[in-house]
């Protein structure tokens, strides 16, 4: 009964987060549904030290879905992998509840270190298409990772991260809307654009200062030239 309840929960997750779905039966066609259901079996085998069988089963899942989840990864309730092709979740990754991942997301390590080497993803986190989260650190609850970002360090809760390397560009201690409720991957702050706008403002201010003092500078140059000419005539 627990397994049937889990299936129903996963079906509801997909229906809630993908507006393209039109019927309950479509859920069984989703790579996300297949990958997560099969991961439960692979993870059980992994925990019972059947490592070869766990990897064999998970690799069959990769070929069927394009989603690679290591059997050792710990996944909470309500994970949704939209489209899913190219998603990679490492062995020591930990994913909280109600997390949404888009295609091409990697939760990976940074080398051959032992122990915990993959990220921990908090609850209600959205990681957009193509984002890479690399290393053993935590992405806090209610956070959003922008498309194509490369995150290499800790992300506080209620944060928005964009860029390469990823930078926290927005942080709000009072989170009103969960990223997994709105699923907005487009309207995110642009730190590069902000830097360019700041440089433009500084250049305009510098130009105004130069224009203001330019007449005085020209007068000073003329006076200096006149003094120099007078000194030369006196020396003659």
What are the salient characteristics of this protein?
41% helix; six-stranded mixed sheet; 2 domains; alpha/beta; 236 residues; UDP N-Acetylglucosamine Acyltransferase, domain 1; five-stranded parallel sheet; 15 strands
- Output mean pLDDT: 83
CATH class division of the largest domain: Mainly Beta
**What do we call the CATH topology of the largest domain?**
UDP N-Acetylglucosamine Acyltransferase, domain 1
Please summarize the sheet with the most strands.
6 strands, mixed
Radius of gyration: 28 Å
Class derived from helix and strand content: alpha/beta
Looking across the biggest beta sheet, what order are the strands in?
A: 3-6-9-12-14-15
Total individual domains: 2
Measured by DSSP, the beta-strand proportion falls in 15-25%
Helicity, as a percent range: 40-55%
Instruction: Name the CATH homologous superfamily of the largest domain.
Output: Hexapeptide repeat proteins
Reading the helices and strands in chain order gives: HHHEEEEEEEEEEEEEEEHH
Q: How many DSSP H or I helices?
A: 5
Q: Runs with pLDDT <50, length 5+? A: none
The second-level CATH architecture of the largest domain is 3 Solenoid
Shape descriptor:
elongated
Measured distance between first and last alpha carbons? 112 Å
């Amino acid at each position: 009964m627990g397994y049937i309840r889990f299936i129903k929960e996963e079906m509801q997750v997909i229906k809630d987060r993908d507006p393209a779905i039109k019927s309950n039966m479509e859920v069984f066609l989703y790579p996300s549904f297949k990958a997560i259901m099969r991961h439960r079996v692979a993870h059980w085998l992994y925990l019972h030290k059947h490592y070869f069988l766990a990897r064999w089963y998970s690799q069959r899942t990769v070929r069927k879905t394009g989603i690679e989840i290591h059997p050792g990864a710990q996944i909470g309730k309500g994970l949704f992998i939209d489209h899913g092709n190219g998603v990679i979740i490492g062995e020591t990754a930990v994913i909280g509840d109600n997390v949404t991942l888009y295609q091409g997301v990697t939760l990976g390590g940074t080398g051959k270190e032992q122990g915990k080497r993959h990220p921990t993803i908090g609850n209600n986190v959205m990681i957009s298409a193509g984002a890479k989260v690399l290393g053993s650190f935590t992405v806090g609850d209610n956070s959003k990772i922008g498309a194509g970002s490369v995150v290499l360090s800790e992300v506080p809760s209620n944060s928005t991260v964009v860029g390469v390397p990823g930078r926290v560009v927005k942080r709000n201690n009072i989170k009103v809307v969960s990223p997994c409720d709105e699923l907005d991957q487009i309207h995110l702050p642009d730190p590069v654009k902000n830097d360019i706008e700041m440089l433009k403002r500084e250049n305009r201010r510098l130009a105004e200062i130069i224009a203001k003092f330019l007449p005085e500078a020209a007068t000073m140059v003329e006076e200096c030239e006149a003094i120099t000419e007078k000194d030369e005539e006196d020396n003659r």
